Amino acid sequence: MKRAFREFVEEKDIKAVKQIWLECGWIKDIETDGIYVKDYFQASEDALVALINDEAECAVKSTKGIMQYLDERFDMAAITGVTTSRISRKLGFARELTAELVARQANAGYPLSSLGMFEQGFYDQLGFGTGCYEHWIKFDPATLTVPNPTRPPVRLGIKDSQAMHTAMCARTANHGSVNLLSPLFYETEMKMTENGFGLGFFEEGKLSHFIWGKSEGENGPLVVTFIAYKNKTQFLELLSLLKAQADQINQVCILEPGHIQLQDLLKQPFRSRGMTAKGQFSHESRAAAYWQIRILDLYACLAKTHLNGPSLNFNLTLSDPIESSLPEDSLWRGIAGDYAITLGTMSSAEPVHQTDLPTLKASVNEFTRMWLGVRSASELAISTSLSAEPGLLKRLDETLRLPKPFLGWDY
Fold it and tell me: Which domains does the chain have, with CATH numbers?
């Protein structure tokens, strides 16, 4: 089947895209939820559709973001929606249209692209590597060992979306932290939160730290979808707000913030887990690696890579599976090739092969995971096709000693 791809045009495509979202289960009703689809696409920096009989049957979109890498910040394109109608599935539309979007991101100068996956394997075909395990924690707020609140918070709503977006973008930045830069995208995420509410605190006239989420029923669960803070004091104050809800709420669900173990702040977590295992409000921790990322510009990424480990030089033979999903006339065809790599306080890539250096063979999926610190070279050599002599793997492990990356923003 001949592919017909083009940019999303609201006047032509919004009705069809709403139908796609309904068929995907992303909205429940075209009339009541359709306005959110329009807002999401207006908030997107780039959006494409695939046509069947001149009707949009597959749609992809992305928005601009920033990712923290140690002390550096990288521009990043976040793919925030890949949706396919019931009549266009298993025809390759989603894969090829997403590949086209990734190529546009690369041509626009983004060094990184990221997305949330619906299943392991599909986006691997486009060079995306799986991120770290993220932890969803469910607990009784009464078991938090933090003090009770010392002051009342301020109620937050949709009218505060701009202030909340600003606070999210100013929150403490860990390795791997992501900010999505569109205030309209954030506002739409808030509007899509059923029974959404927020609690927060202002300092010097500005919203400094807050939680946003939803409560399902009289006794919960209370699901925290966004949390922003700049320091330990603010974080503990937000936890005190959750503890205060224990008079009524039996369960809080929260994506564990990066580099914090909430178990440290829970009283008798194993006893609570055993006592509630078969109950409605069980206490549990669930891990899932649901986001993926890939390098689009190897030179740009390594130019801003400053590592504390010993310097290392090696050859890299890099493969990129996205090439087979791109049309022959695509200006960008991935980043496969042979490179001479330097890693250290100053890192770089050169498009040459040096005969006196050891060689690492990897796909862009695997190299991105190693570079970001998701898994070490030695670990990837066990579970993936990444390969090198043992000495080089060991030296890569020593040089790329990185904190685990956590996004802190679900998309």
Answer: 5-63+79-97 (no CATH), 135-288 (3.40.630.30), 296-399 (3.30.1050.10)
